[in-house]
Write a structure and sequence with these properties.
CATH superfamily of the largest domain: DD-peptidase/beta-lactamase superfamily
CATH topology of the largest domain: Beta-lactamase
Number of strands: 11
Number of helices: 10
Shape: globular
Radius of gyration: 26 Å
Structural class: alpha+beta
Strand content: 15-25%
Distance between the termini: 17 Å
Length: about 325
């Protein structure tokens, strides 16, 4: 694009030379020089304005090619927080099982209700392992063998602070902590708060491992676009107070599962993110902080994966491609 514009510049210079050679060129007119300089600067300005868009388009094409080569169904969103016009959305309205990405909306709702005076994050509540299905109210329990955050199971029938449960829910993705907290704030309230943020399709219907609901197709779901909106809201201090959003970011930065977005990043790069996975599904969504102070939101969702580890690694490499683009 830049070479073409320089070619155009010389063609315009040639045109001006021919048209005004008898009036200006022989006299080396200052007016002629001024015209050429103005055209030159205008073209350079156009090059600078257009170049990011061209580069962004190349990134989008690269991502699309890589996703097409992968085995499964994928969605990808990228948002440059320092320049919101730089955004890429690929398959962003496709619905996916939310898996553990829905725990971020639960965290937002916890901070919201705490801000409204319903409780304090330092309050202690009972760690229980008995929950009701949304289908018929029958009870079910969490199985430690299917969960992470095993230490929490040692605290059953004891008290833990809301903050500690919330931290376990995000950093080690504890399903037990998640269900306790959803009982506290209410799934419907979580979804309603996401609508207030502009996330129009995400659905938080229930806690984790409600098998009866799962068998009826009643599962938490999301889109890549909604997760991008949610992460952007946290990054910009709009998902709660500025201080609350800073605390959310700190919790997300302490994420223990880092085999997708940050996998191939330099160790010094901070990423505030939340993963989610079930059989054939693997997601990651987060905010990436660059050394120069800029940041961007990245969401990669997948389903129908045949080779889980292989495609997870491919998505991690796609995150690195995005990271390298931002460093150009």
């Amino acid at each position: 694009m830049i070479n073409n514009n320089f070619f155009l510049f010389y063609r315009l210079k040639e045109f001006i030379y021919i048209k005004y050679k008898y009036h200006f060129v022989m006299k080396k007119s200052k007016r002629f020089k001024i015209i050429v300089v103005i055209i030159f600067l205008s073209i350079l300005s156009a090059c600078k304005n257009n170049e990011p868009d061209i580069t962004l388009e190349k990134l989008k094409n690269t991502v699309e090619i890589e996703l097409d080569a992968m085995d499964g169904v994928f969605a990808y969103t990228f948002l440059d927080l320092s320049n919101p016009k730089n955004v890429i959305e690929i398959n962003t309205d496709e619905k996916f099982h939310a898996a553990s990405t829905m725990k971020v909306p639960v965290m937002i709702e916890i901070y919201k209700q705490a801000a409204n005076g319903k409780f304090n994050l330092s309050d202690s509540i009972l760690v229980k392992n008995e929950f009701k299905s949304i289908v018929d109210g029958s009870t079910y329990k969490m199985d430690i063998s299917d969960d992470s955050g095993e230490k929490l199971y040692d605290q059953i029938n004891k008290n833990a602070t809301i903050y500690d449960l919330m931290s376990d829910m995000i950093t080690v993705s504890s399903n037990l902590a998640t269900n306790i907290l959803i009982d506290l704030v209410g799934a419907k309230s979580v979804t309603a708060s996401m609508r207030d943020l502009g996330a129009d399709n995400i659905e938080v219907l229930r806690g984790v491992e409600d098998i009866k609901a799962y068998e009826l197709g009643l599962s938490n779901s999301t889109t890549a676009k909604d997760l991008m909106i949610i992460m952007e809201s946290i990054a910009n201090g709009k998902a709660g107070s500025v201080e609350d959003c800073k605390q959310m970011i700190d919790i997300l930065k302490d994420q223990h599962f880092n085999d997708m977005i940050p996998k191939y990043f330099p160790k010094s790069i901070e990423v505030a993110h939340k993963t989610g996975s079930i059989t054939g599904v693997h997601h990651d969504s987060g905010i990436v902080y660059l050394p120069d102070g800029r940041s961007f939101v990245l969401v990669i969702l997948s389903k129908e994966l045949k080779e889980f580890d292989k495609e997870t690694d491919a998505m991690a490499k796609l995150a690195k491609v995005t990271f390298d683009f931002m460093l150009q």
